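> example.struct
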């Protein structure tokens, strides 16, 4: 399955109601079994909790203000080739707990 999330500033009048400060996109292929090209394993749980923030202030601002950038903590864990349990914003009052490992 191809999972794609992308945001760009909206056309008017929607931009006036919900402005986006920047564009952001992320795409990943999600498969049920590991292959030679697999980068990481993920498991998801829906929950409520403290959202994982980015240590870098400009990236944290992007994560907070552009919906597609909510996945930045997951991308950062993959870039570090790290095992992590992350809490990502999903819907109002609901987060996704993402467990990832190389």
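> example.seq
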């Amino acid at each position: 399955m191809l999972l794609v999330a992308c945001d760009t500033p909206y056309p008017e009048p929607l931009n006036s109601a919900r402005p986006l400060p920047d564009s952001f996109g992320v795409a990943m292929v999600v498969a049920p079994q590991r292959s030679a090209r697999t980068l990481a394993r993920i498991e998801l749980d829906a929950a409520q909790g403290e959202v994982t923030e980015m240590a870098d202030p400009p990236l944290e601002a992007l994560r907070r203000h552009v919906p597609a950038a909510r996945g930045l903590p997951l991308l950062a864990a993959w870039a570090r080739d790290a095992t992590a349990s992350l809490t990502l914003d999903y819907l109002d009052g609901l987060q996704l707990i993402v467990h990832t490992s190389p």
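> remarks
Helices lie at 14-17, 57-65, 72-79.
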